[in-house]
Amino acid sequence: MKKVLAMTAVSLIVAAGCTRWNMLNPQPNPPPTAGNTPSVAALVKYLNDNSGRIQTMRCDELDMTCSVGVQSFGLRGQMIAQRPKNFLMGAKSLGKSMVDLGSNDKEFWYWISQDRPPYQFYCGYKELAEGRVKQMPFPFQPDWVIDAMGLGSYGPAERYQLVTEGNTLKLVEKARSPQGQPVRKVIVMNSRAVKAPQPQVQAFLLLDDATGKEICSAHITEIQVDRSTGGILPRRIEFRWTMPEQRLKLAMKLDGVVVNPQIPASSFQRRPMQGVPSYDLATGRLDQPASLQRVQGIR
Hints:
- With 299 residues, the protein is mostly beta strands.
- The chain has three helices and 15 strands.
- The chain has helices at residues 40-52, 125-129, 142-148; strands at residues 56-68, 71-82, 86-93, 96-103, 107-112, 120-124, 160-165, 168-176, 182-190, 201-208, 214-225, 232-242, 247-259, 278-280, 285-286.
- The model is unreliable at 1-34 and 291-295 (pLDDT under 50).
């Protein structure tokens, strides 16, 4: 399977208190230096401060380049997101639907037209938490995607360890995959203050805890700032998935982003797709086809 989605970018906090390393400040505080490394609590507070500015977002001008192995193709699409778990993204090529990903507070789903079989895979969060999903055709974790977009909840600070490597600061969290395997979630930040369009938060990594091998990652190369809220979002981001058989990369450019628009709750509902079987990851079974099916997509 192949999946798509996005990431967050930020400035840093310098002290353990409330000081924000904010690019919007005409006289920003100096970056951390040797002996002045920010605390975990300060970094987490910064991330939560930024995400608190962005309740919803919509991007109607989403340009993507998808690479599978040595093959690449361009896509155009749309994306909407709402804290804490609502997400929807659709993409087309030459007018033909190619990708549909979504999540709400009860379940998540994904469909890739070139996948074999090209099912609409879905799973309830309750079933996922109960360990009923034994195999994921694609390592898609919606909470990781929401975090990468900057709409996540990054506390409490106690769940992270801070690792300093060269010019980067890494917030490392130990977690478990849907199959119960130990993994590490890593947020990579530049330890030096930078200004837009350079990203302060550079990457989100998901690693196998035993081997350190990368499962998937999101890398930000350019950010944008919403002037009305001060919220920071990615403008250019690349998602990478390391698959057993092939590697998938998705480079995205987000233009025309609107922060905190009103989005109907009905936008984040999974709908059957014309001629596409739905596959429940928790039961491992195909659903019976509905008598009337509608094509999924951003409305």
